């Protein structure tokens, strides 16, 4: 009899011995994400039917109009993580400051911090385009028993113990890594179970898809302009194909399966880039490297950047290894 596809729960149990810390801790983190993803998925799929679409009338720290689903997703992920008694702190794109989380015994004995973008690409909700949740997990570095501190969140990406994303698309998937490869699980909505559908996901070393908002072309650094012209050149396997959904999780996920590069460079409109280091670039970079890809700020490894602020932005070049290397070459040569 064909063995059924492994469920996420079975996968976690099978692999928790490879988690560098206590086995149960990983399960509680991923189980919290799993439950929250199912709840948010239900609302995202109903967005056109219930009064949950459209701006919530507030602005987040980024000065972006908060969509009601942003606010809803943020609350669901925060509450689910708190209830699992595993985190001592949470940082979110939607919250100006980090949240200190006490255990049910009012202590500060939980050992993990989670940073997240609860609903990335939310401006696409009203037009029925895929959106995603991105999360990043660290072990705290301040003493257990004391309140979580900003330095627990400002760790370089190389310190992540887990990272992943949920993509609410034509199907809903949870894709994550704990440093031992990348695995993708697809939700069967009829029974509310995630099944292992994409084991050991790997970026093709090369690809023919480049993802960038070319509307900003005139504002890009010369190296990026040169790379775009290289992609459009009639030579070898070029011109490449331009695919840009405007939803990082969707562009990243497609590029990881088909091969490609995503670029969000600096521009005169976004002098440090647009994407946030801690809860967008670092988790996606961890996944990319675990899948044999590469993630750079145009000159150096994303995961080695030492953060200084919770919501800091960095330029982001991420995807198939050879394509990111090529883009870095153009950035370095333009500097000469
Ligand atoms: P632009 C969504 O707001 C996001 O953070 C990413 O998901 C997406 O790739 C990017 O911004 C789109 O930004 O400036 O091209 O609309």
Features:
336 residues; alpha+beta; Fructose-1,6-Bisphosphatase, Chain A, domain 1; D-Maltodextrin-Binding Protein, domain 2; 2 domains; eight-stranded mixed β-sheet; five-stranded mixed β-sheet; 15 strands; 30% helix; 23% strand; globular; binds 6-O-phosphono-alpha-D-fructofuranose; hydrolase; EC 3.1.3.11; metal-binding; magnesium
Word description of this protein:
The chain is α+β, with helices and mostly antiparallel strands. It folds into 2 domains: 3-198, 2-Layer Sandwich (Fructose-1,6-Bisphosphatase, Chain A, domain 1); 209-335, D-Maltodextrin-Binding Protein, domain 2 (3-Layer(aba) Sandwich), CATH 3.40.190. It contains 8 helices and 15 strands. The chain has helices at residues 8-15, 23-45, 68-83, 150-153, 222-231, 248-258, 277-290, 321-335, and strands spanning 55-59, 65-67, 87-92, 99-100, 112-120, 131-139, 162-168, 172-177, 182-188, 193-198, 209-211, 241-242, 261-264, 294-296, 316-319. It has an 8-stranded mixed beta sheet, sandwiched between helices. A 5-stranded mixed beta sheet has the order 12-11-13-15-14, sandwiched between helices. The chain has a two-stranded antiparallel sheet with strand order 1-2. Strand 7 (162-168) and strand 8 (172-177) form a beta hairpin. The mean pLDDT is 92. 6-O-phosphono-alpha-D-fructofuranose binds next to loops.
């Amino acid at each position: 009899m064909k063995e059924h596809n492994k469920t996420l729960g079975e996968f976690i149990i099978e692999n928790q011995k490879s988690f560098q810390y206590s086995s149960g801790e990983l399960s509680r983190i991923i189980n919290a994400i799993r439950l929250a993803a199912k709840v948010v998925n239900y609302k995202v799929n109903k967005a056109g039917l219930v009064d949950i679409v459209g701006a919530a009338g507030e602005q987040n720290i980024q000065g972006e109009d908060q969509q009601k689903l942003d606010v809803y997703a943020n609350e669901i992920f925060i509450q689910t993580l708190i209830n699992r008694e595993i985190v001592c702190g949470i940082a979110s794109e939607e919250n100006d400051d980090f949240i200190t989380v006490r255990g049910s015994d009012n202590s500060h004995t939980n050992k993990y911090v989670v940073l997240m973008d609860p609903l990335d690409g939310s401006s696409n909700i009203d037009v029925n385009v895929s959106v995603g949740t991105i999360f990043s997990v660290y072990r705290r570095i301040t003493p257990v028993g004391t309140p979580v501190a900003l330095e627990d969140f400002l760790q370089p990406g190389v310190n992540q113990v887990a990272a992943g994303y949920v993509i609410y698309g034509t199907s809903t998937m949870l894709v994550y890594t704990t440093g031992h490869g990348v695995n993708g699980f697809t939700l069967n909505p009829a029974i509310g179970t995630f099944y292992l559908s994409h084991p050991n996901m790997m970026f093709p070393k090369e690809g023919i898809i480049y993802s960038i908002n070319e509307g900003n072309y005139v504002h890009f650094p010369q190296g990026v302009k040169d790379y775009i012209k290289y992609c459009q050149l009639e030579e070898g396997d070029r011109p490449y194909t331009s695919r840009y959904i405007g939803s990082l999780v969707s562009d990243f996920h497609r590029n990881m399966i088909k091969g490609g590069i995503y670029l969000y460079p600096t521009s005169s409109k976004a002098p440090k880039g647009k994407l946030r280091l801690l809860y967008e670039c670092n988790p996606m970079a961890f996944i990319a490297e675990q899948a044999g890809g590469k993630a750079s700020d145009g000159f150096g490894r994303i995961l080695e950047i030492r953060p200084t602020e919770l919501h800091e932005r960095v330029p982001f070049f991420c995807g198939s290894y050879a394509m990111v290397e090529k883009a870095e070459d153009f950035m370095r040569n333009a500097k000469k």
